[in-house]
Amino acid sequence: MRPRPLTRILPLTPATLLLLLFLAGPIAYCAYIAFTDLQLTGQAHESFIGFDNFRTAFKDEAFLNAVWLTLVFTFISALLGQNTLGLALAALMQRASKPVRTLTGAIVITAWILPEVVAGFLLYAFFRKEGTLNSILDSLHLPSQNWLFTLPILAVSFANVWRGTAFSMLVYSAALNEIPQEITEAAEVDGAGGWRRLWHITIPMIRRSIATNLMLITLQTLSVFGLIWVMTRGGPSGKSQTLPLFMYEEAFQKSMIGYGTAVALLLLLVGGLFSMIYVRLLRTEV
């Protein structure tokens, strides 16, 4: 008879090997490349240069600008936009009629399932100087502007909210359906208004769902590339260049693979930091 611990480990062996091969392996190789001066062209062999790439990054104004814009983009489009709008839509759809729920859900989910490039082109057409938004403003006799030039980070943030809110809406719809109806009815009998019920009953009871949703949409937003690339390519003058776009430019346009990989490693650490914060929240008892 085999030892009991071995029988528990053996079924996990194939999954563990796959994770080591396709996840841990590439990450380890990227971590090594980040400490070299590897280039795409004009170099026979890379050299180990230690922390030089990281020192260069923290002295690079373009990198620091990309870090700041990444945080702004993540806060506006994920923490503030998708999370809040998703919760609001889920709460409103609970009280709406079935046709309204069906129509709203279809519209929001359609935006979510569109390919990122297609969504980027649609929002580019909406925000461009001759686009839909300015046409609406002109018809209302309101001032228009070139949104992709004057407020590019806000434009791409709104685009990401438009595309990604469906996920938060679905998460919160499932969470709200798990709240016992008796608790809500008792609060209504006690005279609690909608805002008080939301703040003192709904949010505390779905806090774990909020933390899970925040972790997932934050990690997704940190890695957004195609949407911003299609709309602005990080411009003008780097005003919408988040870390994924900065990393791509350094690694593949300037051929500095080592430096670009170092930036990617820093982005991975930022995502890990956010994940640790959210996991800590998940462990907190409601």
* Distance linking N and C termini: 44 Å
Shape: globular
| N-to-C order of helices and strands | HHHHHHHHHHHHHHH
Radius of gyration: 23 Å
Q: Portion of residues in helices?
A: over 70%
Total number of strands? 0
State mean pLDDT (0 to 100 scale): 86
| Uncertain stretches of 5 or more adjacent residues | none
With helices defined by DSSP (H or I, 4 residues minimum), what is the helix count?
15
Main β sheet profile = none
The assigned structural class equals: mainly alpha
Question: Hey, roughly how much beta strand do the residues contain?
Answer: under 5%
Question: What does this molecule look like?
Answer:
The chain contains 15 helices and no strands. It is mainly alpha-helical and 286 residues long.
List the helices and strands and how they pair.
Layout: H1 4-9, H2 13-33, H3 52-59, H4 61-95, H5 98-113, H6 116-127, H7 132-139, H8 147-150, H9 152-177, H10 181-189, H11 194-205, H12 207-222, H13 226-231, H14 243-253, H15 257-283
Helix pairs in contact: 3-15, 4-9, 4-12, 5-9, 6-9, 9-12, 12-15, 14-15
Structure described in brief:
The chain is mainly α and 286 residues long. It is built from 15 helices and no strands.
